[in-house]
TrEMBL record:
InterPro entries documented for this protein: AIG2-like_dom, GGCT-like, GGCT-like_sf
Domain Gamma-glutamylcyclotransferase AIG2-like: 7-134
Protein name, UniProt field: Gamma-glutamylcyclotransferase
Length: 138
């Protein structure tokens, strides 16, 4: 799945967070506030995890600069420890979800916690109230 959709980011890749400049600088042409309905946000070890659930996660919709989508996808897959769909080594799964922006609904790639991680978070994880990691971590 290599469709050139934008990415919804909700943790360390958001503007002002430590991975934003490291991984996104020079590779994007647009970033805008967005929300992911149908998800909950959990605390992780220095970064958050989004998990399917009855809530909304706040983040940004990031559009790859022309000619940079393949590179950006590879960089983000590596950062998020995504190998392939349903691979047991995945920390996150890269999936297509609908996010909401000021201009309406947009299909985007989202990194959700892989099922083995999501199950552990649902059982023993700490929810981030309001689904906004930047507010919770700052």
């Amino acid at each position: 799945m290599t469709e050139e959709l934008p990415f919804f980011v909700y943790g360390t890749l958001r503007p002002g967070e430590h991975n934003h400049d490291l991984f996104l600088r020079g590779r994007t042409c647009a970033e805008e506030p967005a929300r992911l309905p149908g998800a909950l946000l959990y605390e992780g070890p220095g970064y958050p995890y989004a998990v399917e659930g009855d809530g909304t996660v706040t983040g940004e919709l990031v559009t790859a600069a022309p000619g940079h989508h393949r590179e950006l996808t590879a960089v983000l897959d590596h950062l998020e420890e995504y190998v392939a769909p349903a691979d047991p080594r995945n920390l996150y799964e890269r999936v297509v979800r609908t996010v909401r922006t000021e201009r309406g609904a947009v299909a985007a790639w989202v990194y959700l916690a892989a099922e083995h991680t999501a199950a552990e978070l649902r059982a023993r994880g700490t929810l981030i109230p309001g689904g906004n990691w930047s507010t919770a971590s700052g």
